[in-house]
Amino acid sequence: MSVRIGMTGTALNKWIWIAAAIAVLVVGYFVLQPSGEGQAEITIETQAAETGNIRRSVAASGSVRALVTVEVGSQLSGQISELYVDFNDTVEEGQLIAQLDPQTYETRVREAEATRQTAAANLALQRASYARVQATTRTARLEFERTEALASRGNASQAALDNARAAYDAAEAELGVAAAQITNAEATLQQREATLAGARIDLERTSIRAPINGIVVDRAVDEGQTVAASLSAPTLFTIAQDLSQVQIDAQIDEADIGQIRTGQPVRFTVDAYPELDLRGEVEQIRLAPEILTNVVTYTVVISAANPGQRLLPGMTANMDIVTGERTDVLLVPNSALRFRPSPALESRSDPLSEEGPQRGRPGGAPGGGGGPMARMAETLNLTEDQQERARQVFRSAFQQAQSGGEIDRAAVQDAIETGLRDILTPDQMREYRVMAREAAETRSGSVWVRTAAGRLEERRVRLGISDTQNTEAVGGQLEAGEAVVTRARESRG
User: Fold this and answer.
1) Helix, coil or strand: residue 97
2) Measuring CA to CA, which residue among 44, 43, 45, 38 is closest to residue 492?
3) Which residues pair with residue 127 across a beta bridge?
4) Nearby residues of 258 by Cβ (< 8 Å), 6 or more positions away
5) Rounded to an integer, what distance in angstroms lies between the CA atom of residue 460 and that of residue 428?
6) Cβ–Cβ under 8 Å, residues 356 and 349
7) Per the domain annotation, does 322 fall within a domain?
8) Is position 375 within any domain?
């Protein structure tokens, strides 16, 4: 007898899903199980720390313009009757460069001269009248004195004496009026003379003259054109004083302006002469900000020589302002400063060593050189007395800073510099300021090196200026020639 055992479709599907899950777990176990052949390998990339030169710069652009540019205008309205210069002409101070039609102003001068003559004649008339009144007054005074003498002897009546007195007083009054008329005539004459002088000045201003020595870089009028100077003086010419020297107005972002100092060298090019390596110098940092779409910039003025006057006003200069430059210094790649051991590298031994990464280097001290006081004594060649007094200055400055709670580094530096002025010579003080500025530009950092034994070790360093590829290491535990780790890559066999 045969027995046939069957399964429903639902039960069959259930066993199929169970079998598939078991298969996935088995495959995953064997695939993911670590083995000597499938373990991740770490490849460490290094680069030797070497000595070299480094330059830090701020890129900017600006327009070339003349050191002194004068816009020559007209204070008078009128028609241009003559032009004596054109574009690119060289002019000297006082040279006639244009002429306004002078007829109107010549007429005004003649009118003012005639008015002045009238005033002068009136003054002469008033003076003659004054002389006549003076004579009348003298006669009246003599008549009054004779009548008074006769009246005192009884030979003249009181009425005659009163009449003589009245005549004398009237003459005195007329004399005062004549004197006032002379004063008025003199004032009128002075007024007419001033009007004449103004008319002559206006006539002289019809001749437009160059205010400086230079070159005409722009002419804005033609012969026959009428200029109107009712509200403001119209510009007729633009004269550049000297194109052998030019200046460039560069706009520097607020993030970079802190690196800019007067006297810093500048290298720039212009599109017209891309092969020329031109040099300049930062002359001025203007304090007024310029804000455009929430971007704050500051104008930095660069002065530069213009040999052959090939640089023309308005050209665009693409420049690099050198904010720091060092020669023969220890350099580390910027990628090494960004490297930090990954958790995988931290949790296992180095592939070439039985020991894992080591933080720090035994016996080293960041900065090296015995501290700032020792480095200053060596660099500035301080005497024993100077060293002792300088130590007191340093000690006092730091004690004052610590007693105030939070340390203000800028205040400490100012206190130290003030104290050292009475200790250091002028030459030593200049060298100290250079040292202080360089120290202010350094910061702490660390890099990882791979030793000859294959072990990774951390090196504490003081970092100086940076460019796009390298950073200056000004002190610390790193030495030239050591293999600095720049990258660690994981790969599986």
Assistant:
1) strand
2) 38
3) none
4) none
5) 30
6) yes
7) no
8) no
**Does 201 lie in the same domain as 76?**
no
User: Do 126 and 196 reside in the same domain of the chain?
Assistant: yes
Residue 217 lies in a domain: yes
Residue (of 461, 482, 459, 386) closest to 427 by Cα position: 386
DSSP H or E stretch at residue 403: helix 384-403
Take residue 209 and report the two structure tokens written for it: 């003259």
Q: Take residue 146 and report the two structure tokens written for it.
A: 């004779």
C-alpha 213/C-alpha 217 separation (Å) is: 12
> What whole-number distance in Å separates Cα of residue 311 and Cα of residue 299?
20
Residue 229 lies in a domain: yes
Run of H or E residues at 375: helix 371-380
Which residue has 């004596």 as its token pair?
84
Residue type, 339: F
List of residues 6+ apart from 204 with CB closer than 8 A: none
* Number of domains comprising the chain: 2
Longest CA span, the chain: 203
**How are the residues of the chain apportioned to helix, strand and coil, as percentages rounded to the nearest 5?**
40, 35, 30
Neighbours of 380 (CB within 10 A): 21
- The Cα 162–Cα 302 span in angstroms is 92
- Same domain for 163 and 86, yes or no, is no
Chain centroid to CA 252? 9
Element (H, E) at 107: helix 103-152
Phi and psi for 364 in degrees, rounded to 5?
-90, 155
Q: Per residue of the chain (493 residues), what is the pLDDT tens digit?
A: 333 444 444 555 555 556 555 655 544 444 444 544 445 577 888 899 899 999 888 999 999 999 888 999 888 889 999 999 999 899 999 999 999 999 999 999 999 999 999 999 999 999 999 999 999 999 999 998 888 888 888 888 888 888 989 998 999 999 999 999 999 999 999 999 999 999 999 999 999 999 999 899 899 999 989 888 776 778 899 998 888 889 999 999 998 998 898 999 999 999 999 888 899 999 999 999 999 888 999 999 999 999 888 898 889 999 999 988 888 999 999 999 988 887 666 554 444 444 455 555 443 444 444 566 777 888 888 888 888 888 888 888 777 766 655 556 667 777 888 888 888 888 888 888 877 776 777 788 889 998 888 788 888 988 888 888 999 988 778 888 889 999 887 665 5
**3-class secondary-structure state, position 120:** helix
